[in-house]
Amino acid sequence: MKLKHPSNSASQTIASADSRLLVRETLRISANLASAAPPYPSAAAVTPEWQDLRLGGLSNDQFVDSSLRAICCEEIDGRRWKYFAENDGFISHGSKQFKKNCIRAVCLQSPKAPVDELMVFVRSYVVPEGFPDSVTPSYVPYMTWRALKYFLGGAMSVFTTQTLLSSVGVSRNRSVPGAVAINWIIKDGAGRVGKMLFSRQGKKFDYDLKQLRFAGDIMMEFGAGLELATAAVPHLFLPLACVANVSKNVAAVTSASTRTPIYKAFARGENIGDVTAKGECVANMADLLGTGLSIMLSKQNPSLVTTFTLLSCGYLMSSYQEVKSVVLHTLNRARFTVAVESFLKTGQVPTLHEGNSMENIFNLPWKEHRPIVLGSRFKDAFQDPNSYLAVEPIFEKEQYIVTYNPSKDKIYALFKDEAKSDDILKAAFHAHVLFHIVRTSNKNMSSPGKREHDFSVGPTLSDLQSHNVESYKMVSALYGPLKNKAMEQGWVMSESLLNPGRARLCELGS
Asked: How many other CB atoms are there within 10 angstroms of residue 272's CB atom?
């Protein structure tokens, strides 16, 4: 039997059915794509964000074929991330449902270069979190000079250690091992004793922080110089090494005691721990770099005198700039003197930066000859009982007494037993005012060739009483404006670091 081919009508029927099926599938796919994440934009409409998204690991095909939807965006350390979730494919209670555990994180920035990644890593060790907003502006110059100082100090330590070992006889076998060990132990023990004795300074590390810090660095260089001197006189190794180690340990106590107040001045908020940790990290890194450089230089056998001179000058210059860059908000003797003198001359109080920059770093705390003495003993301020009886009624309502002693060329401020912080601050201001009046009076009475601070032409008892009355009137009128102007400039007036003596006047019946 002969087979017949299908008719044309049957072929058309099958083709029509296939076309309808293809249309339905196309519509279904289009509906799914419309309900999912926004389609990938055309090449003409590609934004930088979409380009960064492709760099983040999701290709064009993934966005077209998947049903991801952006749900959140975050930023960390300057880098932005987007989080996407995958649709579950159905709608429940009118809202789109997402699959569980389907969140994908996409970085919106292109990968950083290795050098940039290295810089980010280094910054995490050398600057506090949130820098620069987490610290004051003076932090950067301080840490720059501190790093240079420790770099030079690390370089110098290599030469001093080599010199000590050579002098004690290790390198030339001039001493038996036991004697070498004993000398080294005695040297270190003397340094520890010196550290304990100098710790008695106590509150002076708060009162005259910058002065003591710079003095400590000078002592550090003095100790290093003595260690190098042992190369010239090795038979004097033990006494020179002991004195050098005492000097260096005193410097170490000073550095450790003044470190926290300095870092506290840089911290904004409760991040003193972070600031301290990063500051010490910078110092250690600089010290290691300096040590490594010095080791390489030592192989060339340079001149010890020339090397020490250059390194020591650089070290002290860096130390001076380091302490000068610190901006403190409290008033110690030096900064208070700057503020009061400026106020008496111009009627204005210097800013924090100006007051700190004009502070005298070389005015050492233990310097005895000062024109103003706070908290002195009665016997030092008054030798004549009549002078006391003349000024005592003027200060009846105050918790202090201020007087001038012509025989010692000094202004003395004595405190009563109930004197508080504000009374000490007011007495210090009164002492400066009286000093200004007496100095002006003596300049007018003396010849032009006399020095400005020469008190050889002393005032009489009546002159002294009139000077105290005049100073009391000035203080009553000016002390309030001084405090207000100082607080406007950012100075802390609620407490002071004027370091008064411990003597207090009490009632005769007590």
From this structure: 16
Q: How far apart are CA 488 and CA 14, in angstroms?
A: 93
Asked if the bond preceding 132 is cis, omega within 30° of 0, the reply is yes
Q: How far apart are CA 54 and CA 477, in angstroms?
A: 72
How far is residue 327's CA from residue 354's CA, in Å, rounded to a whole number?
Answer: 9
pLDDT of residue 390: 87
Alpha helices in 199-236 (DSSP H): 204-207, 209-229
Q: What is the pLDDT of residues 225-263, one digit of tens each?
A: 998 998 888 888 888 888 888 888 888 888 888 888 899
Q: Which pairs with CB-CB distance under 8 Å and at least 24 residues apart come from 396-401?
A: 398/423, 398/426, 398/427, 399/423, 399/427, 400/424, 400/426, 400/427, 400/430, 401/505
DSSP for 154-165, written as a single string: HHHHHHHHHHHH
Say if residues 431 and 393 touch (Cβ distance below 8 Å). no
Cβ atoms within 10 Å, residue 77: 8
Q: Which residues contact 209 (CB under 8 A, 6 or more apart)?
A: 258, 261, 262, 326, 328, 332
DSSP string for residues in 269-334: SS-HHHHHHHHHHHHHHHHHHHHHHHHHHHTT---HHHHHHHHHHHHHHHHHHHHHT---SS-BHH
Are 114 and 98 spatial neighbours (Cβ–Cβ below 8 Å)? no
Contacts of 74 (CB under 8 A, 6+ apart): 80, 81, 83
Torsion-angle region of 443 (φ positive above 0: left; ψ -120 to 50: alpha; else: beta):
alpha
Distance, CA of 113 to CA of 96 (rounded, Å): 40
**Count of C-beta atoms within a 10 Å radius of residue 366:** 10
Rounded Cα distance between 478 and 486, Å, is 12
What does residue 224 show for φ and ψ, rounded to 5 degrees?
A: -65, -40
One-letter amino acid for residue 170 of the chain: V
In the numeric block, the tokens 């700057």 are attached to: 338
Judging by DSSP bridges, how do beta strands 79-92 and 104-107 pair with one another?
A: antiparallel
Q: Which amino acid is at 122?
A: V
Q: Which long-range contacts (CB under 8 A, 24 or more apart) does 190-196 make?
A: 190/242, 190/243, 190/245, 190/246, 191/242, 191/245, 191/246, 191/248, 191/249, 192/249, 193/246, 194/245, 194/246, 194/247, 194/249, 194/250, 195/249, 195/250, 195/252, 195/253
41 pLDDT more than 80: no
Residue 247 tokens read as: 């000097």
DSSP 112: P
CA distance 33 to 16: 26
Residue 441 · residue 470 · CB < 8 Å? no
Give the tens place of pLDDT for each residue, 8-26: 444 444 445 555 655 555 5
* Three-state secondary-structure class, residue 481: helix
